[in-house]
Amino acid sequence: MSWTDGVKNFFSNFNATPRMGPLGYILGSAYSPLVLERDMPDRNWRDAYEDLLALDTGGKMVPDAHRKAEDAYAAKERYDYTCETISMCNTLLREWDKIDDRFEKYCKLTWDVGGNESYGPLGDRVRSMRKKDTENIIAHAKNTQLEYETVKDMSASSQKSHGQWITSLISSGALPGWRWDEHISVDGPLMRFARTKAPPELAISFTMTEKELSEQFVHGQPQKIGLPLRLPPARLQALRDGVIEAPRSRIGPQRLFVPSLSSTLMQIGTTESFKRPDGSRSTKVIIKNQLVNGRIVEKKYLQQPAKVLEEIVNARKSMARLKTFFVEGPQVDPLDEIDSINQVFDDMFADFEGDPSLA
Length: 359
Known about the structure:
This protein is α+β, with helices and mostly antiparallel strands. It contains 12 helices and 8 strands.
């Protein structure tokens, strides 16, 4: 047996164990909704499976009102993101127009006083940067608009990443007796799923990343359940102690993202099932966000699926920024490059800055 076949055989047996329950089916079955949606994408397999799972675990199908509430939030969140992104792209293009105007004024001024050679290299730099940046900005705006057009009519569940969707099975009450933790790793979101209050023979806890799930269900690679490296504890402690600060640029003001002590470092989610006065059962979602400063912020939601989704999305955004900061370094505001060019102008032509026409 080859190593690859051995891995497949291991996970096939692992997923089939009773302790894995429905998650074993989702991760290992050829009829998993995450497999079916890849092969037959014209149907919402996720919602269908969630309803079946809810009925199988003694609950009711997910109410239409809950899904509509999630859909409304997802649509607004995507629309707002698209508008903000395109607005930023337009701002950057306008700033480049201003750079062009200012450069022409500087060129004319230095030419008039015999300094025409001073702006040759700068002109080459500006034109090169402008061409490259403008192409990238326009492409980014077009891609953002295309992404919006692609997903704007999709349900919220279809827009969720694979790990987010598995998490939502727990938060909706369709998968009772489980909890989720979400951490930051060098590979992005790292999720841990575990049974709660399970007898020893059913107790289980395992981790996976969104990257691993994407590789498996999008690219058809073998299943993985690993433990990617988390963020360096020393870096986190340095942030808590106020040691890490935004570095200063030699030219131009830097507007960098540096995580705050109120950034979300980890999220833990559990559910409680209870009986209503009318005899029906309902699910309360308890979410705990651990912040960088060590505080735990707990929130409880009852019949508020859109609020739960928003809480999960916001925590992911915060953790994604933390991951980027610690793995790739501080992120510079897109306007910084333009600020740098303006600073170069200021330094090279300081003698002419008294002329208000050059501002």
